[in-house]
Amino acid sequence: MSKIQKVWGLLLTASLILGGCSTGKDNGATGEQGTDGSGKPVEITIYGSWSTEQEKGSTLKTLLDEYSEASNGKVKVNLDINSEWSMYVEKVKTMIAANQTPDLFSFNFNPNDLSRQQSGKLIDFLPYMDEEWKSRFNQAELDAMMVDGKLNSLPFERSGLLFYYNKELFAKAGIDHFPQTWDEFFEAADKLEAINVAPISLMTAGDAWHTANAFSYLVGSAGGPDILKTGQSLNTPEMVKAAQMLRKLFDYTTTDALGADYSVSANHFLLGDTAMIVDGPWMSGSIEADMQDKIGIAGGPTFGDGKMDPGFIVTDALTPWAGGIQASKEKEQAIVDLMKFLTSPESSKRLFIEGGVSLSAKFDLTEEDKSKINPVLSTFTDVTGNASQSLVQIARVIMPGASAEFGSLLEALVMDQVTPEEFVQRLDEANK
Amino acid sequence: MLARRHIAIYLLPIVAFTCLFLVIPFGFAIYVSFQSWNGLSPMEFVGWGNYERIFNDPVFIRSLINTGLWVLAAIFLHIPLGLLLALILSKRPRGWKFFRTTFFLPNVISSTALALMWYFIFHVNLGLLNGFLSTIGLENWQRPWLTDLQTALLTTQLPFILYVGVTMVIFLMQITTIPNDLYEAAEIDGASGWQKDRYITIPLLAGTVAVNIIFNVTACLRMFEYPLLITGGGPAKATMNISMYIYTEMMSANRYGVSLAAGVLTIIFGVVVIGLLLKAVRMMMGRG
After folding, report:
1. Is A19 on the interface with B (CB under 8 A)?
2. Chain B closest-CA separation from residue A343 CA (Å)
3. What distance in Å separates the CA atoms of residue B78 and residue B218, rounded to the nearest whole number?
4. Residue range of the domain that includes B239
5. In terms of CA atoms, which chain B residue is nearest residue A8?
6. Measured between CB atoms, which of B40, B231, B234 is closest to A96?
7. Which chain B residues are within 8 Å of A105, Cβ to Cβ?
């Protein structure tokens, strides 16, 4: 790292502290709180995005508390949460730039953005990766995490992003199955509108999550599983077709979709205002018990042209966990031990069953375990497992600049300020 | 000699802090504005590339125009409103202390809380405004205030325009220093209340107007919370201002060089605007 960058990092650190933007806790990057003879516990602070108000966050918190307790005062794990994902991602990058890398954090793996892994500020887990630990992971996923010969991050969370649909509203509208093609989809949407139900939850604020998921289905349907492969232009007729359909999709959503954020969009579905939403398995934990049997799960419709198999799925990027390099070897070892604990079959099983988190680490489920799973999550897992084709959600594979532009371009498309052709062209330009 | 040394000692802390937290960071901002940098990877010198990019970026131009509209809102709406309230309250009508406190109250409330409150006033479905319009039978007037291009910018500016507490108090303080003799003499000459304001109070407030312009214009140049929390800069970046542009370029797009180039331009823009405004005020006061 150049001197200029070091000084810049120092200044950025000062500004973070002065601006009150810091977490208010010792991020421990310097390892000052190690057990170097002081008798104090090693403090590890996980900078996380899972709210403890939701199942996955509360399950993680329980696991961490149990871990701290079982260490007999040797390790204390703190959880610092920022549940607004786009803000979280930005903050992590700033913390790394300011030499305040969190002890542990998560991020979306993007082959077009390896800046975190190449920052030189992350723990290399490779020297700690014994055969037993290695065997818990899918080798291909471990290989994907290797950057410049280092294992700077560990595969942790992976999940499909599927259509949740309200079977009761479908039945009321006279729809007896989830649409297999986009033509069927829009026919169903017309029927839902006829009974005054907004067909699908969409949003444009932040990372426009639910819309980006739906758009990814349209993109996959139009161009097949390889359409978003690294290095390819986004300015293609298939992308234009997907953008045209996306514009049409906004004629079938709620009046507040323009400018809506995740919670607005999700709540519309959870309250039965909309009939469909595209989201990850975590949403199953937010569905009230009396509503669970009304919810169906499905993969995506196709254009019926054979480019994608019916029921194909869009997946979220791998969400690996990484840790900041520590000055104290004891603390680094404590972080590795914690990751071994969190990726153990027992922890993974609990995170899946109790938290609804779909994990990379392997684990087996007994019949008794299966009976404890939320039925929506169980269906979600089955649909994901049965899908013959998939592609990764678009925002996870485009450059950060394009990702940052997506929401506003989307709003311009919805307000007819840009045509679908211009939408795709400008997204492609931002992706360079 | 001793006095000079004392002055130097007194100045030392502030000079040191200014250098540490203003001059040096500004120097680095200028340096980084000529680099391509995502905050994590090594920097790469790009010359004037970031500046060229900014001037060819319609979003920056929109942000610049919007910032100008904020400045105009401060000068032609916020400050006159503050002056009007100060003139009314200076006459100490019944309950003036209550109103003075009430008008000042929003200035001690977190701007985040205020922004969220306005978000829920203007929200298309949950908003009080559309609910009110519906109640009084004006459904036709309902609209998505936050995402309508005609109204979105105004929704972000309205809290700033209306919360005039500080501006009002500054005017009030100055009004209390105006000698009463002037008003008594005017009364003997048969001047009305309006004439006293027009020919005595307002002319003697010219210096305070200048102070309020500087305070409010600089606040507008730095304005961030209201557009961020009320519209998020949308729809389609229609309510972005320079502060938001700097923020999104750095934090969302990870283009630190572009962001800081915009920051440098903002400082230049701010200095020019303040300079022109001060010159205009001086001319108005007959000193130009």
Report:
1. no
2. 28
3. 13
4. 58-284
5. B28
6. B40
7. none
CATH number at residue A232: 3.40.190.10
- pTM assigned to the model: 0.80
State the pLDDT at residue A2: 52
**Residue B89 banded pLDDT, cuts 50, 70, 90:** very high
Q: Does A411 touch chain B (CB under 8 A)?
A: yes
Answer yes or no: are the C-beta atoms of A402 and A430 closer than 8 Å: yes
Q: Is the interface score ipTM higher than 0.95?
A: no
Domain enclosing residue A135, as ranges? 3-158+318-364
Nearest to B147 by CA among B138, B139, B156: B156
Q: List CB contacts (< 8 A) between B123 and chain A.
A: 256
Q: Are residues A130 and A229 in the same domain?
A: no
Token pair 């977490």 is found at A23
| Residue A271 and residue A189 share a domain | yes
Beta-bridge mates of residue B45: B35
Per-residue pLDDT, A232: 85
Which chain B residues in 47-76 lie under 8 Å from chain A, judged by CB atoms?
A: 59
Q: Which of A5, A18, A411 sits opposite B234 (nearest CB)?
A: A411
Written as six digits, the tokens of B17 are 């802090």
Measure CB to CB from residue B42 to each of A2, A18, A97 and give the nearest one: A2
Q: How far is A37 from chain B (nearest CA, A)?
A: 34
Place of tokens 């994590």: B40
Structural contact between residues A202 and A257, judged by C-beta atoms closer than 8 angstroms: yes
Give phi and psi for A329, each to the nearest 5. -65, -35
Q: Confidence class of residue B99 from pLDDT cuts 50, 70 and 90?
A: very high
Report whether pLDDT(A408) > 80. yes
The stretch A99-105 carries a mean pLDDT of 95
Query: Which DSSP state fits B57?
Result: -
Do A243 and A381 belong together in one domain? yes
